[in-house]
Amino acid sequence: MCVTTRTASSDRRRAVCRRLLTGLLLVCMAAAAPVAARAETRWAVIVSGASGGDKCAEQMEQWRAALQTALVERHGFDAGHVRVLVDESVEGGKTSSAANVTAIFDEIRKTSAREDMVLLVLLGHGTYDGNVAKFNLVGRDLTADEWNQMLSGVAGRLIVVNTTEASFPFLDALKAKGRVVITATNSAAQKYATVFPEYFVKALGEASTDLDKNGRTSVFEVFEATSVAVKQHYEQRGQLTTERALLDDNGDGQGAEQGGEGPDGSMARLWNTDAEPVSAADNPELISSSPAAPHAGGQGRGAQAAEGRHARRRVAGGLREAHDRARARLTGDPPAQLKRASQCSNHSAFVILNSPDTSRTLHPPRARVPAVRAGRTSSTPATNPMTCARERDAARRP
Asked: How far apart (Å, rounded) are the C-alpha atoms in residues 362 and 381?
């Protein structure tokens, strides 16, 4: 009788232990299960301020339409997340008043998360009286400090592009970590109407802006393509360049021009304006030199996996070659001859064979052009490297 009682008691303890272990195992499995990542939400706010006349209103209407089309059709923005505020000449649209701008960013502030992206583009005119910089709206204008207060608290990656003639003071006013600020001018003394917005809109809409041909368009590539086009605009007309764009992405408020050295540009190179990478099959330049992949029919999973690894290696090689060609076109230097020197812990090392300096890197520092402050004359424009490359190539032809 005692033996039977002890056996039943042991069975109950074992059953309780099994239930506890099962529950603990389920908890551990739930904790270890991958959590579905929240898809990023990408916002674009296009503020078309007071036009100042019929001619400007017509031009701004064209820019708004082209910009909205490029963001939705080429960069994959959700049309519902592209907000457009128009100038006073448009009937039936939501005007670019201070109240409407504030309402949009109140909505974004409530819903945005760290993985989201917010692009703000200011089209129109601005003023600077030596003390306060403003962007001209329909009704009361907003100062640079008021814009900064309104943007504070917006989570995610924030990109501000001020295309106006009085944009330079915004560079310092809007500086912040985790924020990219682009201005059309590098001096408060530059007060002429800018051509920056025209070429900025074109850069967003053209596939050639993907300079390294990796299927993605970064914020820096848009800035670089726009800056080069602005320089060519003035050179082709034999005019003195009256605007030089700046980009600040490290929060120091200094900024750098296209081709300038310094820390600015590192983050902008990593932030892409499009949502998803383009497949290698959709980018013929990356796979033009790659052998055709065999048909997958009849292959086992192991063979398909091996072919996938080979395809990724071919694409990586194509990316390196495309990046080298793009760098050569921009700098005028001959493409560097690269050789894989060693591979350790899956990290590839490269050396440059045609350089006596073995410490030379693949990305040489860009020469910084100091920003010109108010009251100083504008510095002599830097020589366009793309023009120099074309002239050198023409001289070499028989």
From this structure: 26
- Looking at per-residue confidence, does 256 or 289 come out higher? 256
C-alpha closest to that of 300 among 312, 308, 292: 308
Cβ neighbours for 277, distance < 8 A, ≥ 6 positions apart: 215, 216
User: Which amino acid, one-letter code, is at 150?
Assistant: M
The model's pLDDT over 330-376, given as tens digits with 9 standing for 90+, comes to: 545 554 433 333 333 333 333 332 333 333 333 444 444 444 444 43
Paired residues of 83 in beta bridges = 45
Q: What is the average pLDDT across 122-135? A: 95
Token pair recorded at residue 226: 């726009």
Q: Can you tell me the distance from the alpha carbon of 369 to that of 381, in angstroms, rounded to the nearest whole number?
A: 9
Query: Strand 142-143 vs strand 157-162: parallel, antiparallel, or unpaired?
Result: unpaired
Considering only residues 316 and 79, tell me which one the structure prediction assigns the higher pLDDT. 79
For 389, other C-beta atoms within 10 Å of its C-beta total 16
Sorted by sequence, the CB contacts under 8 Å of residue 342 that are 6+ apart come out as 348, 349
- 3-class DSSP state of 22: helix
Cβ pair 74, 204 in contact under 8 A: yes
Among 268, 272, 292, 267, smallest CA distance to 280 is for 292
pLDDT grade, residue 53 (50/70/90)? confident
Residue type at position 22:
T
Above pLDDT 70, what percent of the chain?
Answer: 62
45 membership: H or E segment, kind and range? strand 42-48
Return the bridge partners of 247, or none: 182, 256
Supply the mean pLDDT for the chain.
75
Give the number of other CB atoms < 10 A from CB of residue 67: 24
- Beta-strand (E) ranges in 261-386? 338-344, 347-352
SS3 content of the chain, % helix, strand, coil (to 5): 40, 15, 45
Question: What's the whole-number mean pLDDT along residues 256-273?
Answer: 93
Task: Write out the DSSP string of 204-246.
Answer: HH-GGG-TT-SS--BHHHHHHHHHHHHHHHHHHTT-------E
Which of the listed ranges 20-24, 67-71, 259-263 does the model predict with the highest average pLDDT?
Answer: 67-71
